[in-house]
């Protein structure tokens, strides 16, 4: 026992965190998107606002914690998708409002009392679906025919069916008639729901400035709401349903919305753009999204953490030791330090600055939500909730410093060490003076030698083309390319020619392939071929076998000619350097 207590004390002494509070029976079931820290009463003491999912979809509540105890709670009508705190206006006292996204609604609380309810605009219903229900209303079709027609619309139509039709299709046959009689007189409505939510500064970047709500919906739209009138200021459409949001900038100046969607991609939206400007394809489904300075960090379901630039260029990948449960940003503003906090399924929380692991926290249970910021009057507080409903509060020590060696970027430290360059010698100084005095003449000599070298290379190339000694044809009438591969150690070798027609759309026909070799050294089973019709773009292999007859360990060159039938001048020529036969040499 003494040894165990001493080891735990040493771990706590080496840790960068103070254990402030742990309540395994807090009954908090939530995610990182449903947690926020805010000064709700303007007294300088920050509270913890939690959208509690409750047990099995019941007893959903909006809870506010002060210190280690529950200060207040309000009943929610539906499961919360996200919680955000924001300033709606410049009125005194400057107390933020609490926005809770739930279903198709955003419930806004001012001073922890219901203030406003924003409803997402309804979507256009499918006209075919409306016609079918109109026929059912007038008793022109029976429920079974209605079911068949709705199933056909569901499979082919671009506009999805309404909730009423989907519920009808899920009914048993005996209950269909009662369902139709109950709902056929009501108009068809198609309503979307909120999947994620964040905030965007309106016109200033100050911490206490007015902010807009940014909402992602199930209909693959991103909406920006006015903070006072709650009207839609901007609407942007995505290729898929958004799952995570990260917002940067000011609405009136310039902003950038980064969205991780269910199709496994990240889309980047900018001001005055209705469609995404950049797209990042992830290796798996996203589990979290965090912006660190100007870079984007995404956690994926394949146990990886991936970093990208704002334009989608991949920077690095970190392979995690366990499945990723949640992630959030650690922003230590006093030191200008930012890192990504990752909650793992092995009861650990890892902290990364770029791809470098800087700290590991061991927890009593699997962490499902993380939040870092000012809580109470302490600036650097880490708040976590666990899978079993527990609440963990830790405080970063004032003396804690994340080691620079763990977070160093770019080249290694050894590269910054200055080399001991020797002093300039007399010979070096004389050579430098000579180059300065004769710079023009030296440059002219260099240019003359360079031009002479280019001329020699051009002449040799033209000679090779004119005599068909190159493995590539020079005429546009027969654009061919050939290369040869020799396989084996001897005395029998396998010789494979690869011939390709490089023209745009004209095949090559009536071509012959011939081999020229020393018959005293080699014997070929077949030294003459008639090539098939060469279709442009395809690679045609021609194989033959060469047997070495000499036992003296010597080799020679075999020449390959590609000719047109009826002509003596070859179109292509290749020289194959045969290897020494290991079999006969060993014998």
UniProtKB/TrEMBL annotation:
Keyword Cell membrane: yes
Gene Ontology annotations for the cellular component aspect, listed alphabetically: axoneme; BBSome; centriolar satellite; ciliary membrane
First-listed, main subcellular location of the protein, grouped into a coarse class: membrane
Ubl conjugation is among the record's keywords: no
Positions in coiled-coil regions: none
UniProt-listed SUPFAM superfamilies: Quinoprotein alcohol dehydrogenase-like
Residue ranges constituting the Bardet-Biedl syndrome 1 N-terminal domain according to the UniProt record: 17-270
Alphabetized Pfam families for the sequence: BBS1 (PF14779), GAE_BBS1 (PF23304)
GO terms for biological process, alphabetical: non-motile cilium assembly; protein localization to cilium; protein transport; retina homeostasis; sensory perception of smell; visual perception
UniProt cross-references to InterPro entries, sorted A to Z: BBS1, BBS1_N, GAE_BBS1, Quinoprotein_ADH-like_sf
Compartments, as annotated in UniProt: Cell projection, Cilium membrane; Cytoplasm, Cytoskeleton, Microtubule organizing center, Centrosome, Centriolar satellite
Ranges where the Bardet-Biedl syndrome 1 protein GAE domain occurs: 480-582
Superkingdom in the source lineage: Eukaryota
This protein's UniProt keywords: Acetylation, Cell membrane, Cell projection, Cilium, Cilium biogenesis/degradation, Cytoplasm, Cytoskeleton, Membrane, Olfaction, Protein transport, Sensory transduction, Transport, Vision
GO molecular function: patched binding; smoothened binding
Assembly notes: Part of BBSome complex, that contains BBS1, BBS2, BBS4, BBS5, BBS7, BBS8/TTC8, BBS9 and BBIP10. Interacts with the C-terminus of RAB3IP. Interacts with CCDC28B and ALDOB. Interacts with PKD1.
PANTHER family registered for this protein in UniProt: BARDET-BIEDL SYNDROME 1 PROTEIN (PTHR20870:SF0)
Protein name according to UniProt: BBSome complex member BBS1
Native organism: Chelydra serpentina
């Amino acid at each position: 026992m003494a040894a165990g207590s001493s080891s735990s004390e040493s771990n706590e002494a080496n840790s960068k965190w103070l254990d402030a509070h742990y309540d395994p029976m807090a009954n908090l079931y939530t995610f990182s998107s449903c947690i926020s820290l805010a000064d709700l009463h303007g007294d300088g003491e920050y509270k913890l606002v939690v959208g509690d999912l409750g047990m099995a979809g019941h007893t959903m509540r909006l809870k506010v914690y002060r210190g280690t105890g529950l200060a207040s709670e309000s009943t929610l009508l539906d499961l919360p998708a996200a919680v955000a705190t924001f300033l709606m206006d410049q009125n005194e006292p400057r107390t933020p409002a609490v926005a809770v996204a739930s279903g198709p609604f955003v419930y806004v609380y001012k001073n922890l009392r219901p203030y406003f309810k924003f409803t997402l605009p309804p979507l256009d219903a499918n006209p075919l679906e409306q016609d079918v229900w109109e026929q059912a209303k007038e008793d022109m079709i029976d429920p079974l025919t209605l079911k068949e027609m709705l199933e056909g619309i569901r499979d082919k139509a671009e506009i999805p069916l309404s909730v009423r039709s989907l519920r009808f299709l899920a009914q048993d046959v005996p209950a269909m008639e009662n369902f139709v009689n109950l709902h056929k007189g009501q108009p068809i409505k198609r309503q979307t729901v909120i999947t994620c939510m964040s905030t965007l500064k309106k016109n200033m970047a100050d911490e206490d400035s007015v902010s807009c709500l940014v909402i992602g919906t199930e209909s693959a739209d991103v909406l920006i709401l006015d903070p006072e009138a709650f009207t839609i200021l901007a609407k942007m459409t995505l290729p898929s349903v958004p799952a995570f949001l990260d917002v940067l900038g000011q609405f009136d100046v310039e902003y950038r919305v980064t969205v991780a969607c269910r199709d496994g991609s990240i889309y980047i939206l900018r001001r005055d753009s209705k469609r995404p400007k950049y797209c990042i394809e992830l290796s798996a489904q996203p589990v979290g999204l965090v912006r660190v300075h100007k870079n984007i960090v995404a956690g994926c379901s394949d146990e990886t953490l991936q970093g990208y630039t704002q334009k989608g260029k991949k920077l690095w990948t970190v392979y995690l030791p366990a499945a990723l449960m949640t992630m959030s940003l650690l922003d230590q503003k006093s030191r200008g330090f930012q890192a990504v906090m990752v909650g793992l399924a092995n009861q650990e929380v890892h902290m990364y600055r770029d791809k470098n692991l800087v700290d590991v926290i061991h927890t009593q249970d699997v962490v499902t939500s993380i939040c870092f910021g000012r809580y109470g009057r302490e600036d650097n507080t880490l708040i976590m909730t666990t899978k079993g409903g527990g609440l963990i509060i830790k405080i970063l020590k004032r003396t804690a410093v994340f080691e620079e060696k763990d977070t160093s970027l770019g080249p290694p430290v050894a590269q910054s060490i200055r080399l001991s360059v020797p002093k300039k010698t007399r010979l070096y100084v004389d050579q430098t003076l000579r180059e300065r005095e004769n710079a023009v003449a030296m440059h002219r000599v260099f240019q003359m030698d360079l031009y002479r070298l280019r001329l020699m290379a051009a002449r040799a190339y033209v000679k090779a083309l004119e005599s068909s000694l190159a493995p590539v044809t020079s005429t546009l009438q027969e654009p061919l390319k050939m290369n040869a591969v020799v396989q084996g150690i001897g005395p029998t070798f396998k010789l494979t020619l690869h011939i390709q027609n490089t023209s745009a759309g004209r095949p090559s026909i009536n071509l012959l392939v011939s081999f020229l070799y020393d018959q005293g050294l080699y014997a070929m089973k077949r030294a003459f071929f008639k090539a098939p019709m060469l279709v442009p773009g395809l690679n045609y292999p021609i194989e033959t076998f060469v047997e070495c007859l000499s036992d003296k360990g010597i080799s020679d060159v075999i020449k390959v000619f590609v000719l047109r039938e009826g002509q003596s001048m070859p179109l292509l020529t290749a020289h194959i350097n045969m290897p020494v036969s290991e079999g006969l040499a060993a014998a």
